[in-house]
Design a protein that fits this description.
Blueprint lengths: L2 E6 L7 H8 L5 E4 L8 E5 L2 E5 L12 E4 L4 E2 L1 H13 L4 H4 E4 L3 E2 L2 H14 L11 H9 L14 H18 L7 H15 L2 E3 L1 H10 L4 E4 L23 H8 L6 E9 L2 E3 L12 H9 L12 E3 L1 E2 H11 L3 E5 L9 E10 L2 E3 L12 E8 L16 H14 L3 E5 L7 E3 L1
Parallel strand pairs: 1-10, 1-11, 2-5, 2-10, 5-7, 6-8, 7-9, 11-15, 14-16, 15-19
Antiparallel strand pairs: 3-4, 12-13, 16-17, 16-18, 19-20
Helix pairs in contact: 2-7, 4-5, 4-6
Bound molecules: guanosine-5'-diphosphate, 6-O-phosphoryl inosine monophosphate and magnesium ion.
The site of 6-O-phosphoryl inosine monophosphate has 25 residues, from α5.
């Protein structure tokens, strides 16, 4: 069997969580492969709205196994909160979740270092979620990290102390007072929840599941334009958010990758700092934010909004080997007379379809095509056949440029508001 991958093609918050939940019945296993509690994946069904940060979005579906892969960074305190909230809703998390021993842990001091680094950057701050993601991945690549499997070691506390000592030195450089005894105690207490879970050698178990013919869906976090290598560096996250990240973040060979679902919004949003060529800092952008309820699922920050950017989308499709596109939130654009779509950029007076190397200092000027908007509310459509012609045309413009079919159109946050095309 192959492992299918679903990931975001823009700057995150495309609606990955909703779609994972919608597609989960077709799979046996849902596996997160990178990122951590910087993610906020929203699911809605039966009037319940739930935001997941660390736990995969297949957790509400019966009979599905959820795996947190080695590529993820876990904050045990956030994890405990998620487990408690799910348990209250009647979800048996322990039965439905496995965690790779090789996933790294986020300490409270990683969060402090994240905040201190951002404060020092001032105007050039990344706009991170302040969840400690960057510092935790730095300790991973710096070969100082503490992994989930270490909680089973008798000298776990000593290993934590060694890292805390190093962090204390770094924090003093930032004039940060450092961790208090109470903060450390609360973190250590939350480790107990993690210890109660099924900890696995993820790469062996996942490859075993593949050989047993189990259908696996890998769940991306963030989006391709936030990828550490290919995003708008340095305004990116600290992991590989592209399909290749599913291989290193789960321990599967590239030859095992099957379908790649690329999720994108019918427009663009971005939270945090960094270049955003099609951003609308006007009433139109404000209307998108209001209609789309574009406020961060993790931090509550208003999301920046703008027109769809096809060169960026095409770039993400290329990097990920996307086999089918899923368009989210066109319902938010209902009632817009005109919809603009960026199809190329103007750089040094010349039109081009590639994203230039330096987009941080010189934001490329978007060149737009114009499409007619759809006047009607599409959130209650029961079948794609009932769609307004303007929506069909908008999708055809995208498909013509990207050369990958849009197979699913989501017209509202609920599970049921999903149209197959
Ligand atoms: P993720 O991080 O990719 O899982 O996306 P988020 O959950 O952070 O953000 C997507 C937001 O849009 C959530 O509030 C969803 O409930 C909502 N949403 C998802 N799909 C649709 C849709 O098709 N239409 C509308 N109006 N909202 C949607
Ligand atoms: P999901 O999975 C949107 C952004 C932050 C910041 C940058 C770096 O819900 O789509 P970090 O905390 O990772 O060091 O922040 O990345 N960011 C996200 N934006 N959705 C996310 O996740 C994000 N995760 C990180 O806003 O600009
Ligand atoms: Mg999100």
């Amino acid at each position: 069997m192959k492992v299918d991958v679903l990931l975001g093609l823009q700057w995150g918050d495309e609606g990955k969580g909703k779609l994972i939940d919608v597609l989960a019945p077709e799979y046996d296993v849902i596996a997160r492969f990178q990122g951590g509690p910087n993610a906020g994946h929203t699911l809605e069904f039966d009037g319940i709205k739930h935001v997941l940060h660390t736990i995969p979005s297949g957790i509400f579906r019966e009979g599905k196994l959820n795996i947190i892969g080695n590529g993820v960074v876990i904050d045990p305190m956030v994890f405990k909160k998620e487990v408690d909230a799910l348990t209250k809703l009647g979800v048996d998390v322990k039965k439905k979740l496995w965690i790779s021993r090789k996933a790294h842990l986020i300490l409270p001091t990683h969060r402090m270092l994240d905040a201190a680094s951002e404060a020092m950057k001032g105007k050039t701050k990344i706009g991170s979620t302040l969840k400690g993601i960057g510092p935790a991945y730095m300790d991973k690549t710096g070969r100082n990290g503490i992994r989930v499997g270490d909680v089973e070691r008798t000298d776990f506390k000593e290993a934590v102390d060694v890292l805390l000592k190093k962090h204390a030195e770094l924090l003093s450089f930032y004039n940060h007072p450092g961790i208090t005894a109470e903060e450390l105690e609360a973190w250590m207490a939350s480790i107990e929840t993690l210890k109660q879970m099924t900890l696995i050698d993820g790469e062996y178990e996942i490859n075993q599941l593949i050989s047993e013919g189990k259908r696996i869906l890998a769940e991306g976090a963030q989006g391709s334009l936030l990828d550490i290598d290919f995003g708008s560096y340095p305004y990116v996250t600290s992991s590989n958010t592209v399909t290749a990240g599913a291989c290193t973040g789960l321990g599967i060979s590239p030859a095992r990758v099957g379908k790649v679902y690329g999720v994108f919004k019918a427009y663009c949003t971005r939270v945090g700092s960094g270049p955003f060529p099609t951003e609308l800092e006007d009433a139109t952008g404000e209307k998108m934010r209001k209609n789309g309820n574009e406020f961060g699922s993790t931090t509550g920050r208003p999301r920046r909004c703008g027109w769809l950017d096809l060169p960026a989308l095409k770039y993400a499709v290329m990097l990920n080997g996307v086999t089918q596109l899923i368009m989210m939130k066109p319902d938010v654009l209902s009632g817009f007379d005109e919809l603009k779509v960026c199809h190329q950029y103007k750089v040094n007076g010349k039109s081009q379809k590639r994203i230039p190397y330096n987009i941080v200092n010189e934001i490329p000027e978007p060149e737009y095509l114009s499409c007619k908007g759809w006047p009607t509310d599409i959130s209650k459509l029961k079948s794609y056949n009932e769609r307004p012609e303007e929506l069909q045309h908008y999708i055809e413009v995208i498909e013509k440029e990207i050369q990958v079919p849009v197979t699913i159109v989501s017209v509202g946050p609920d599970r049921t508001q999903t149209l197959i095309r």
